[in-house]
Each structure stands twice: as structure tokens, then as C-alpha cells.
Amino acid sequence: MKYKNIREEELKNKVGADWFKQFDTTEILGNIDFTVFPQQDNLFGRTPLLWAEAKTGNFDVATMFVQLILTIGKARTFDKTMPPAFLGAFDFKKIAFVPYINIQDIFYLNDFNWNVTPSNHETKEFQLIKQRIEATLKQNTYVYDYEKDEKELKAFIKNNVAKATTTNKLKIDKNNFIPIYLRWLEIIKPIIDVNWDDLKKANILDSDFYLADLFVDDNNTQNIDDDLSIRDSLFVVFQNQGYKIAKENLKQMFDATITLKNKDTYLHFWKRYKRPPLKEFQDYIIERRDLLVPQDIRERKGAFFTPRIWVELSQKYLTDYLGENWQDDYYIWDCAAGTGNLLAGLTNKYNIYASTLDQADVNVMHERIDHGANLLKNNVFQFDFLNDDFSKLPQSLQDIINDEEKRKKLVIYINPPYAETGSTKHKVSKSGVSNETMIHKKLFEQMSTFSKRELYVQFLMRIYFEIPNCKIANFSTLKNLQSSYFIEFREMFRAKLEKIFVVPADTFDNVKGKFPIGFFIWNSEKKEKFEEIISDVYNLRGEYIDAKKIFSYNNEKYLNDWLRPTWDNVKNEIGFLACNSNDFQNQNGIFIEIVKKNQTSTYFKPIGLSNLLKSSIYYAVRHCIPATWLNDRDQFLYPNDNWQTDFEFQNDCLTFTLFNNDIQSQYDINHWIPFTEYEVNAQAKFESNFMTNFIKGKMQQEATTDTLFEQATTKESKPLVFSEVATAVFDAGRELWKYYHAQKDVNVNASLYDIREYFQGRNDKGRMNSKSDDATYTQLLAELRSKLAILADKIKPKVYEYGFLKE
């Protein structure tokens, strides 16, 4: 092999010398292994040609690219310098290239933790990125063997990498219009003489000024009137060395020209870029203007870009339900259309209506119609669905809504905004989102604060009550089906749910979190209170993976109700159980502490002798089944009584809890040590033997004494008997404790958390490292976790059998 058995630095030097000698490969850019730049600066600086990951072993291409992506994303390198034409990855045998534009969207993932260590290939973030880009890499990656493909590699570098450099102004395309915007924010926005708060109230954002700059012709900076399609799509235009608000795009008029405080700064900035953007990318930039809008504004306005894969799938489901000719037989109205991407693929433009909150989005759709979009301009209009009266609708649509029979043939097809507002005792949400709408005031007197603050619920309620007997096809979360806060909604909204599929929420642009988003088909002509339905389930690639039953939980008592009566009987606490809400969404909020750190929190409940077993059952039931995007909204319920006589189940849950918690002895006496000093060869006596005394049946009931930890043994309970699987967990744990106590300078009262911290240490940010250099410890911990996983699998069927979860 060409570069076998050499170190990484030598590999990078040789690759640079052998393949990129006509370029500069010496520049260090953050933690990126290898960069390629043009040899000479031009008047406007240097644009990078290649950022690459280097590996000395023989790695698969996807793994190398994922590490590079995580490195770039962690440092947000693309915010600090112009991104390159290509990303690369190479090892001792091969080198691969992928156009940066093909993976650019990955850097704008919502709710993604970019702070993980890029070289740790075991993190969920690493696996998520790998899963997201594998299909893209298969289609767009160029891979060359140094020896077998020498000629082809040289040709690729000459014809692609080399030609990515430029000595002229940088051309604006869909690869760089976002990074240019980020620099524009730093340099140009501060010199625009305007009150941004006033403009924001009128839904005019800094990105509108950037687009005005972007679509100026450098040969004539004062006039773009010749290109009416561009002008009509903009809120703001650049004229006479200043900005002008386009009157036709706003209800509220702004007449004055907005000037620049420093014209020299403005001119110097735009000298580097060739405006307007390349013609072939102009439609894309206009269509994806949502990427330039700040996150909070995008959420408030509901600027969600429905992925093409779910648009196509939703239309397939509509065809299956309404028939092959449904587009000819039914009228379709998307009343939350945005720029209209949900309507792509529909064929009968004479039956389609599209409305949206912002006139600018209407202009975008009109421009798309000019370029072949299958819509009618007269049927695409500005309309505020939650505030405007139906008298503002086109007459042809009013005729449909006002005709009882035609309404039955109307499909409201929408992906409405998922924003919510209002405050609860637990959190404060976005203000000014939904409480001010006409529909909120008109229809929501009988509904709770929780349900009526959801914008998509307001859409559904207006459709149901003011467009009766129509069909509703919408994307939304599952709150309206499952949340206890939406019981009133389910009482009032009696449309029959005919079909549903669910997909991961994070496949949608601008949607945060790991939870399901569903596509619902409702028939409001049929009156039925929702109770349950079987949903189809698709993964992020659009592959069918399962069927899942979704329940309403209309008349249920919850798991917290089951444990609540035990809290008043605890006299001497050995810890506190954090009892968050009753769904998988709040799994991370279920944990045990020795002390109640947050004294004002209502979530922390005492654990003592009287409720130790029941608290352990609660904890084990909540954690033995991993939380996923699919079960995120499933609710834990008040169980039936059969668990009471299943002592093996109870003891399995205690075992699971003892070896699966994050108790730290630094905060107080650790009463949770599952072994005696003799079992683990401890170097000194433990401060507490509470747990082993409890297991051996040596603990009296709390009512017989005021001092929990100095109890006589005259009224002993029977020793606990553990299953073979639970015993295996104890055995594995014992070996880990013994190994720890054989070390130097240990904390004799250490918890499992303390043991992990001892061997794994902490990084510069104070976080516990994910791995240890001690091979014996690593093996012992892996064995304990393996046995715990087997125990969790044993507990899971009982969770459903005893009604803690519905199946």
C-alpha cells in the first residue's frame, strides 16, 4: 500500500506533496486535519478548496466523513470562513471527495448536540449523522485508490478541485448564501439606520434586507425594476443607495428610504461577491429564505418546510383513502401553505387553493407558477386563517365552503405551525403566538390553557366548527391524541380519524426533539370521539418499519397517582425520587438523589423504608424500556393489583434500581450500597448498611421506631429472594465493587456513580469521560451492564402485563 505504516502527520504531508503540490496545504484551520487553498491570495482573500479528514488505518469512507462533519459542526467553521467546494477523507489506501453542497444541510440540524467528541464513534450523535448521510455519500462521493486510480485521481483534482478557485468576485450560489448572510449580519446590519424592533413587529426581518442586497445587479445598484419577478418576491428593495420597503407587500406602509450609516463599508463588503446570485440558484435561495430567518421567528410564524419524502407519502395515503381520482373529485385547500411545497406533486391546479400568512410567500408561489409550478395565481392568496373572516376568500372558495355538498368534497390539506404560547406553573412558552388570535377568543372558552395555546389545534378547531363535514389531512404532533391536557379538545373535536402514519420529528426542518409527527386523515362528516388507532410507522428514510397502537388515555389514572400515597408515610429519607410527568418524553427527569437539591421543586419525593420497594418498581418500570422518538408520547399508568403478589418482579425492580442510578456519596450518607464490607473487601466500615440489612430482612417498619438506622431486629421481615437473573446482576456488581476497593485512595462509601468517576475521570469541561484506560474496570462494567440489560428484558413483559403501559 502506498502510505502504509506511517503516522498521521507524515500521511498528511505525503498526500499534500504527491497530489496537491500546486496548492497550499500548510494552513491550519481549527481541528480540521487537512486543508487545501489556492497558492496566492487575490484582492478578496482566499477561498478554501478542500477540508479533509486524515486516518492512518483503513477506514470506511462514511466513518471518516462523519468525524469530519462533527469536527466542522462543533467549531462551526462554516460560520467563520467560507466553506470549501469539497470535503475530503483519506487514509493510507484511498481518498474520497464529496461536494460540500451535498451535505450542507446537516450543519443546520435542529436540536442537535454538536459538542460531542468527533473521534468517539460510539456516540448517538455520531451514529445519527452517519445514518443521515450514508445515502447521500453513495450518490455523490468520488473515491479513488492511490495506486489503482492514479490517473483518475489526478484528473479529478485538476478538473474539479483546481477549478473551484477564483481570482474574480465570489459567485453567490446555494452553497454559500447562508455563510455570506452570517458575515453580512456582522458587517452590514449594524450600519443600516433603522429601528429593527419596529420592523420586526411588521414581520420585516434583517434577512429581508440581506435579500434586497443579494438581488442587486452590480452593474446597476440603483435599479432592479427590470426583473419584476425578483422584486415582487421581496419585502425590501435596494434603491438610490438605500433601502425601500415594498409597499405592495405590506398592510402597514413604510414610505421613507432607509439609509446606510457608512456607504464605504457597504461597498467594500460587496466588492468581494458577484451579485445577483447565479441564475440557476435564484429559485432555490428564494424558496429557502426560511433558512435565513431566526429560529424563534420561524417557529412563531410556523415556517416549517415539509420534507419531500413525507409530502409524497401523505399524498399516497390520500389516494388510498379517497381513491385514484381524488384530485379530480375533491377540492384541496392548504390554508398554511408557506411557499407551497406541500402542494408539489398535485396535478389538478383548477381544484387547488393555497393561502398563507405572509404576502412575500404568496409572491414566491406566484414566481414559481411563472416557472412552471402547477397552481393558478388566482387561487394563491394571502389569508390569516386564525384571524381573517372567510369573506376575504376568493369567491370560488367561498362558494365551496358555503355549499353543504361541496364542503363534503373539500380537503383541508395542511402542515400547520406547531408553536405554542402561554405559561404554566412549570414553564413559560413563547409569548404572543396564539392567545391573541380571533379563533382563540371565539372557540376556546371550554378548553384548558394547555390545549388552546397550540396553534395547530386552533387550525383544527376552526376547520371543524366553521367548515363542517369536510375532510382534514394534516401533519402535527400527537398531543391532541394522547396528552391528558387535550381531553377537552377530544371531547369537542369529534371528527373520525380514518388513517394515520408517524415519522421522526427531526426529519422536519425547524422541528426540535425526538418525538413522532403524524399525518392524519380526518372525516369530520363522521362523528366519533378518538379512543385508539393503529398507526403505520416509517423511519427517517421513508421505510415502513412497524405498526403502533396509539391510545387516547381519556379515562386513565397515571403512574404518579399510584406512588403518591406513599410519600406522606416516609419518616426517615434515604433519598429522593424525581417524579416528572408520566410519559417517555420526561424519562431524563426520573432519577434518584441522596438529598433534595432543589428545595422548591415539587418533583422530588422522599424514599424511605416504607416505600422503598414501590419506589424501586416505579424507577425500574420507567427506565427498563428506553425512550425513543416513537414511544415519546406514551403514558405510564396506574397498574392493576397483580404486581402485589409477584415478589420476584418486585425484587427484580429493586435490583435494577440499585445498579442503575446516579447517586453520589459526596452529598450525604450513602444508604444504597448493595453489599457488606466483607463481600467487597472494603478498606473500612461503611457509614450505612441500610440496604444489605433491608435485603436480609433485618429492617423493622418505620412506625415502630423514630431512628431508622439504629433499629432492633426483634421484628425482622423475611430476607428477599432474588431471581437467577437478578442474582447475576449482584454477582457482576460485586466483582466491580471488589476491584474498586482494591485500588488506592478510594472512597469507602462509594456509589456506582463514584466508582465510574474514579476510573473514568473528568474532562476539561468537568464532564465524566465516557471511557476508562483501565481494561479490567471496562470489562467489569460491561459485564454489569450486560446483566442489567438481561434483567431489563425480564422486567419489560411485566410492565405491560400489570398495566404500567398499554400495549
TrEMBL record:
Protein known as: Site-specific DNA-methyltransferase (adenine-specific)
- According to its UniProt entry, this protein's organism is Flavobacterium macrobrachii
List the InterPro entries: DNA_methylase_N6_adenine_CS (IPR002052), SAM-dependent_MTases_sf (IPR029063)
